[in-house]
Design brief:
Elements lengths: L1 H30 L2 H27 L13 H30 L8 H28 L2 H28 L5 H28 L9 H9 L6 E10 L2 E10 L5 H18 L3 E10 L4
Helix pairs in contact: 1-2, 1-4, 2-3, 2-5, 2-6, 3-5, 3-6, 4-5, 5-6, 7-8
């Protein structure tokens, strides 16, 4: 099942993120680098978001029941909301810590080991984020794609930390807390973006891959269809629900009109990416 495949990806990424976070935290504390510790917290939150993803996908994979006739797919979106909210909390903590270090400066100890750790974890993050993004697109998983964007931010954060190390070497110790502030703002921006994307799903936005031209071509190519109107879709990529009004010759029998509606439904499901269900309303063609 797709949910099981997504969960396996999360488990793999979780293991790698935990390793990266621990290494950054240990050497960041040893060096006294607030930006490196902030980066470690960011990586640590990657691990937490992976756990959220695993739990959310497990619950979202449950089959429909009398209380949830459309299934439990939106639990994945709720998991995405949790990730976005926790990102904002993490950003707030990092901003406060960076501000404190800016008021009370502490010059971190930069060694070849700390630089090597950052370079190594940077390479790991590039590999992990690329892998996660590709799998998210392959499985059309909203939460996996969102988490891959979060993981990818570590690449930019780690690059910024390395830039801070260089600035400190050049005699600008204030660069470390300033970069920590920048990291906090970056995480906050990502959190807002993730929350916005999840909210789009929950309010049934039509910002989905329901190409009107494709829908028109499929529907109008179906024998017996005279026209259509009021096509709507909602949900999320990979799990789209839609409805459409199709007009037919009013002289047709109910059985024939029903057969046409079933043909339209089948063709749309086969052609529109991620379309899980479509309700076809049959109406008489006024022009006939």
């Amino acid at each position: 099942m797709q949910g099981d495949r997504v969960q396996r990806v999360f488990v793999i990424v979780l293991i790698l993120n935990v390793a990266v976070a621990v290494v950054k935290a240990v050497f960041g504390v040893m060096a006294g680098s607030v930006s490196m510790v902030a980066d470690a917290l960011h990586s640590g939150f990657d691990s937490f978001s992976n756990v959220v993803g695993i739990v959310a996908m497990h619950l979202a994979g449950k089959p429909p029941d009398p209380e949830h006739p459309y299934g439990h797919g939106k639990i994945e979106t709720l998991g995405t909301l949790v990730i976005g909210a926790m990102l904002l909390l993490t950003a707030a903590g990092i901003l406060l810590e960076g501000y404190g270090r800016l008021i009370t400066p502490i010059t971190p100890e930069i060694t070849p080991i700390t630089v090597g750790v950052m370079v190594g974890t940077l390479i790991t993050n590039i590999i992990v984020s690329t892998y996660e993004r590709r799998k998210g697109e392959e499985y059309q998983s909203q939460i996996l794609i969102a988490d891959s964007l979060h993981t990818r931010s570590d690449v930019f954060v780690s690059t910024a930390v390395l830039g801070g190390f260089l600035a400190i070497r050049l005699g600008y110790p204030a660069a470390d807390p300033i970069i920590a502030l920048g990291i906090g703002l970056l995480i906050a921006r990502m959190g807002v973006g993730i929350l916005y994307g999840a909210a789009e799903v929950l309010i049934d936005s039509m910002n989905l891959p329901c190409d009107p031209a494709l829908v028109r071509a499929v529907v109008m190519d179906t024998p017996g269809v005279a026209g259509y109107h009021d096509f709507r879709c909602r949900g999320k990529p990979g799990e789209i629900f839609a409805d459409i009004h199709v007009t037919v010759d009013p002289a047709l029998s109910i059985a024939r009109a029903h057969a046409i509606s079933e043909e339209v439904e089948q063709r749309l499901k086969e052609t529109v990416p991620g379309l899980a269900e479509v309700v076809v309303h049959i109406e008489p063609d006024d022009s006939a």
